[in-house]
Amino acid sequence: MARISRTLLAAGAATLSLALGACMGPAGSIPPASAPITQDEARMGAEYHPQFLAEFGGAMTGSQATYVEQIGKNVAVQSGLGNARESFTVSLLNSPVHNAFAVPGGYVYTTRQLVTLMNNEAELAAVLGHEVGHVAARHSQRRQQAAQRNSIFGLLGAIGSSVLLGNSQAGQTLSRTLMQGSQLLTLRFSREQELQADDLGIEYLGKAGYDRRAMGTVLASLAAQNSLDARLAGRNASVPEWASTHPDPASRVQAALTKAGPATAGGITNRDTFLTRIDGLRYGDDPAQGLIEGSRFIHPELLLSFNAPQGFYMVNGTRAVTIQGQGGQAQMTTAAYNGNLETYVRTAFTALGGQNSQLAPQELQRTTVNGLPAVYGTARVANGNSQVDVIVFAYEFARDRAYHFAVIAPAGGAATFNPMFQSMRRISQTEASSVVPRRLQVVTVARGDTVASLARRMAYDSAQEERFRVLNALTSSSTLTPGQKVKLVVRAR
Questions:
Q1: Angle, CA of 271, 128 and 292, to the nearest 5°
Q2: pLDDT at position 199, please?
Q3: Which residue has the higher pLDDT, 474 or 17?
Q4: CATH of 287-433, one of 3.40.920.10, 3.30.565.10, 3.40.30.10, 3.40.1000.10
Q5: Structurally, what CATH architecture does the domain formed by 438-491 represent?
Q6: Which stretch is the leader sequence (predicted)?
């Protein structure tokens, strides 16, 4: 949550526009997959590209970003799109979530966190090839057309609606607003489109000379990481579909391996080259955006900290921290503050309700939390045949600076979030200075090294061996060989 913008909706709306603003030819026609990127597609992609970078931590620079760009453009050439190398823009994003995506106009993105999960160059090419496949097949445009045929909320629901809120218009509006500013708000494709992009990525892998099975192996690593994250957070092993831009990688693994066929001697992986190139890459949160440590969020620059409710998990975005769980969803962010905390809370309710909403709290309560002046209020909203509570809980940190939680919970369920509300506090400069980020370290296995001995060097207090195995795509029965390169997560200093 880096120096969060003064308005929750401004940048979030830009991302939403990006998801919906697919580029089409006359009368809504979609160019065939083999057609070059059109001027309209390139113009629209260029318009939203800087806003999208801002939403996902910005584009990284340096040798690692150059390497990712090189591999991405080499794969894009295999798509058959005219001038693919020149037409595609490939960005490595400074984001701590495992994700990759693409938008019309040849803009392809992967997060640094997803790159750290990969184990060879072929897997990097597979992920980027999958995203190139979305661009080549004009999946964004087709999703937009389908949404327009169904209803104005069709695609919005696919992007941001939650299980809790169902499909009511009020529920979608509130949920969508909460999701804006977080890194969950990106276009989701249908299962058929995901599988088609997998197939196209595998085709591009083969044409580029890579091991075609890399699509299946990287999906397997992503599925294993999802499962581990869920276990560590004490939640369901499958990521909720409304919180995933690439749902259910586990179900796609076998399909990708079957499509790829048996391993061939000619397919390259470039494992050691890849590991050498990504050595030192930041792992997890960037301190400038705050860090998630288990159930705790700490921001060493904003000098604040809070704890998520038990059983909930957090996703750290560039403008907000999203908190998800079975009992509701929340977001911690900020907005413009003029020194009046009650006005701030009422404005936050208005923003949550949308332009035509009369959403307002029933009453406002003043309190103090860990020495911070605070104001909170609740509004009850009809959601189909049931009701939900919308809560805004705000804190004053300075005369010109305030932060707030915006929460949606089942009617009467706000108590679930009370421990979180009461955990917000200032941190000292000394505590902030003690926050040390993590980075990836590539080491060579020495004689006598084992999975257990190397895992003990992982910069975590729990599940060290599980984390080490998932990071290196090692099964429970895998052993190490002297001379083999493996990845560790260590403290940056």
A1: 85
A2: 87
A3: 474
A4: 3.40.1000.10
A5: Roll (3.10)
A6: 1-22
